Amino acid sequence: MDISLESISELRRSFEDKLNEQNEVFHPMDLAKINNSDSWLKRFLIHTEGNQEEALSMLWNVCEWRKSFGVNEISESNGTVRIDYLEEGIMFPHGVDKDGKLMFIIRCKLHFKASKDSEECKKCAVYWFERMERLTNGDQITIFFDMMGSGLSNLDMEFTNYLINLLKMYYPAFLNYIIIFEMPWVLNAAFKIIKTWLPAKAVKKIKFLSKHNLNEFVSKESIMVSWGGEDNYKFNFEPENKKVEETKKKV
Length: 251
Fold this sequence. Notes:
single chain; CATH 3.40.525.10; 2 domains; 10 helices; 5 strands; CRAL-TRIO domain-containing protein; CRAL-TRIO_dom_sf; CRAL-TRIO_dom; ER-organelle_contact
């Protein structure tokens, strides 16, 4: 969808007018993005199909949520996110889909709802979303549900709904595909319910795939050995701050 610079400027002006009227205080980092990032504002207009009123409402709600949830403070270096959860590798970014978009892999068989603090799991998801935003400069991602070996005990409808709401309400135009890989038949009914949580345009992005047709939507180089490919990647959590320091040393 083509969004003009004038439309972006209009959204920025509308936000500033509302901010002055209501005298609200938002996080300085979010205000800086609104002032300086045309690409971020453009995503709100894409998400709302160019509707200025809806884009403004969404932008305002996003700023409120980011402030109340403490999104800008979530980091592995300050104790705001469970490092042990991150290290388990239940969810992590790796590889790209057929469009070159980063994949966010969720290994469902490793997740047991009863053994996890749901609020901490939500923080981990937001941590990764924010990290991927920085890594890709706001480019789209593909959510990859690796359901090999999973069953009813791994099903967490609350967390799945939370992920969907992040994409619907707080991370505009961030989703490329949702890939459901090797889904057990016992979870068919659950995913029929999950589909109802998505808007029609997002339902079209859901792809139910198996080893036989995974290469239709995932880059050949990113198909891991366990999925029938040749990528022998093994997850090992690396703090973002460490990666930044390593990059600085190379420069």
